[in-house]
Specification:
The structure holds 2 protein chains of 2 kinds. Chain A is globular, with a radius of gyration of 21 Å. In chain A, the strands form 4 sheets. Chain A has a 6-stranded antiparallel beta sheet with strand order 1-14-3-12-8-7. In chain A, strands 2-13-4-5 form a 4-stranded antiparallel beta sheet, covered by helices on one side. Chain A has one domain. Chain A is of the alpha+beta class. By secondary structure, chain B is of the alpha+beta class. Chain B has a domain of 36 residues. Helices cover 48% and strands 15% of the residues of chain B. Chain B has 2 helices and 1 strand; from the N terminus they run E-H-H. Chain B starts with 12 loop residues before the first strand and ends in a 5-residue tail after the last helix. Classes of the chains: A alpha+beta, B alpha+beta. Chains A and B meet through strand 15, helix 5 and helix 6 of A and strand 1, helix 1 and helix 2 of B. Strand 15 of chain A pairs antiparallel with strand 1 of chain B.
Amino acid sequence: MASYGKLREDHLLEPATGKAFPVKKGEVYRIVTEEGGQCVDCQIYNLFDYREHMSTSIMRRQGFHLEKGDFVISASPRNRLMMQFLDKQDSNIIDVLVHRCSAAYFEAGWDMVSHTNCQDMLAEAIGEYGLTPDDTHAVLCPWTNTKFDNNGKFYLGNNRKVKKGDHLDILALMDVLVATNVCGTNDFTSLGDYWQRPMRLQIFEASAETEDLVEKVFQRYPPLKTSRTPKDFHVTRGEDADFVLKQTPGYKPQFNDYPIEITEMEIELSEEDYEQVKKQIALGIRSDDEDAVRTAVIEWYCANRRIHHPMVNYMGY
Amino acid sequence: MADTKEQPTADKKVKIKVRFTHQQMVLLERLKQEGKFGQSYEELIPAVFREYVKQTFGLGGL
């Protein structure tokens, strides 16, 4: 693995929050599982022209799940290589199928009008750079274990094989703004094992080795002559300078349902019921007593009380 | 999280500490209002746990 430059950013990403950072060409953006596996959502923009942003639909040409060596690619008509996945563990499923959760998702599926959600968190994160909620786009989802059947219907697996300290490293091939949030569904789906945990975001400065990696990418895949930018358009809107991303000094995000409040209670199980807890743990499908009970209760609710709606029924219950 | 179980008491119960997010508590409150599984969280959670085991692993559980 290439050696990276100095760590220049180290941010604890709390549940119910998101954060955007500029990442310069040759730098490495790292996401770390601070406590364990769970879904996160990312958005990526050209730092100097936010009209150019990542497109998961074109990235799916590399597969529904992305691997080391695959690329973040910008939407048509730009179609440029923006970043490359350098390092990850096999248990990290990088998904480009799912749509980010939103307030409407929780209303449609659970009749909840207030639940932390990716759309609102990402909107608050990119707001620091002058972007609006309408500027969000389809997300890249590391640690999002989607599965699909022979009919193309997909459902969610879990992240129980992910370990504390696992990481995803993404090399910037151009100057970008990357926004990441802890997925709002983690406490309502198997992706978070029905819990919300913090993550860590880090940025490493460019090194001679990472700059060499960037150069090698463009030697192999030179910029495409037909990649179109506004100078090629006969219809345009606004001035180029309007689309440069700049940090707003003193910006304060307004996250919904932050901080996550926790209620702890003591319950009693019969010996017979507790035997079921122990068996689940022994099988490796639950990590401890608390996980076994909480997962059972919330998963049961979702399977039996969740409202069926086209916006949420992909979950396969 | 550390295993929170205690030794079985005289009436053969095992105590477990469980945390829920405030958003999960909304779901639990709805089940409490429904009344089918009990009038308190202490009744409801073990009852739902048993229902889950039945649905997921069959009547006899694992």
